[in-house]
Design a protein that fits this description.
Order of helices and strands: H
Largest sheet: none
Distance between the termini: 67 Å
Radius of gyration: 21 Å
Oligomer: single chain
Length: about 60
């Protein structure tokens, strides 16, 4: 019976680790995308997305 609990515990730990790792990986990809957007805006001479006023959108 202890083997069953060990297997269940191992599976739960693996699933939790996978979910946390996937979330961290997604956040890194989103940060890279925002950085690429900001770099493109700077090359075009426009303000960075995080420095843009709401009235400036679409201009």
């Amino acid at each position: 019976m202890i083997y069953v609990w060990a297997i269940i515990g191992s599976l739960v730990a693996t699933i939790l680790f996978d979910r946390i790792y996937s979330k961290i990986k997604l956040e890194r990809e989103m940060e890279k995308a925002w950085q690429a957007l900001n770099d493109q805006l700077e090359r075009e001479g426009k303000p960075r997305w995080d420095q843009m006023d709401n009235d400036d959108e679409g201009k």
